[in-house]
Design a protein that fits this description.
With about 150 residues, this protein is of the alpha+beta class. It is about 25% helix and about 35% strand. It has 4 helices and 5 strands; from the N terminus they run αβαββααββ. The protein has helices spanning about 5-20, 40-45, 95-105, 110; strands spanning about 25-30, 55-65, 70-85, 120-125, 135-145. It is elongated, with a radius of gyration of 16 Å. It starts with 6 loop residues before the first helix and ends with a strand.
Length: about 150
């Protein structure tokens, strides 16, 4: 696939690369289009519980300020899919540690500075507290201040 040439695509590529540095994370750039025969839930259930995940990234929002300011914001969204067994009691420490590790990989200024962008905010939250098919989801939302040319 060709490399992105505009800021939004470059930020998504940077996010994908940062996620790739975290052990146990399989990252997908952009909204994931799988073959009809793919059983994604089964793939997630085959992961090592709590310590491995799939991460899907995409650009979810762009806000352009008046041209005089020369800045804007871009929001990236990452959905994490973990195996978390419904019928086994767990303190979820590995799960929370992995989410923290992923967040820590995305927060340094050095991750975004090559694109003259700065992290404004990162929010991580469980999508819902109930498990379905032994899969837990976490949504990470990253807001970045970006230059506009």
């Amino acid at each position: 696939m060709p490399a992105a040439t505009k800021i939004a695509g470059k930020l998504n590529e940077t996010c994908h690369a940062a996620l790739g540095t975290v052990t146990g994370v399989t990252a997908y750039k952009g909204r994931l289009r799988m073959q009809d025969t793919t059983d994604f839930e089964e793939q997630v259930r085959a992961l090592t519980k709590e310590s491995q995940c799939y991460a899907v990234t995409w650009v979810s929002e762009r806000v352009v300020r008046p041209i005089e300011s020369g800045t804007g914001t871009i929001e990236l969204t990452i959905l994490l899919f973990f195996r978390l067994d419904q019928t086994v009691t767990s303190d979820c420490n590995l799960f929370y540690d992995k989410v923290d590790e992923i967040c820590e990989s995305l927060t340094p200024d050095s991750v975004w500075s090559s694109l003259s962008s700065k992290l404004n905010r990162l929010v991580a939250q469980r999508v819902e507290n109930q498990l379905q098919d032994n899969i837990a989801q976490v949504r990470i939302t990253i807001t970045l201040d970006v230059p506009w040319c």
